[in-house]
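Our preliminary data section would be incomplete without showing what the modeling component actually yields. Below, a chain of 134 amino acids is followed by its predicted structure, encoded as tokens that our downstream tools consume directly.
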Amino acid sequence: MSAPSPLVIAPDGPVPKAPARSAPSRSGRSLRLALCLTPLLIALCWAVANRPVVYEGVRRLVSADPRWLLAGLGCTCLTWVAASFVRQGALPDRLPAGLLLASQFAAGAANHALPAGSARTPSPCAFCGRAGCR
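Predicted structure:
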């Protein structure tokens, strides 16, 4: 009896199978958890060390005019929509609108967490690659 072929026959020809992924080791999961929690711990330590600054910022935010806060939120959301339109306009293939908008939100969130906008491009590019745009 012969071993199964590592290739799957598709209409366009043979396509190599993806290698099976092994479960991450316990130490790898612990390291990933530590790396994910480190920025939160640093932010919490900063907030505790600068309690008067945090208190003043929260006080000003609570006392702000809700109409201006809604205007700021609306403008922020419109920038995600505009960036999604720009990304869709640059691609020949139609991408799912909701996922495209979500990738723009993820890029903006990552841009706040990482230095010098280093996450602004990789996140949407990874999404476009998974969506089949090359």
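The chain has five helices and two strands. The mean pLDDT is 79. Preliminary results of this kind motivate Aim 1 of the renewal.
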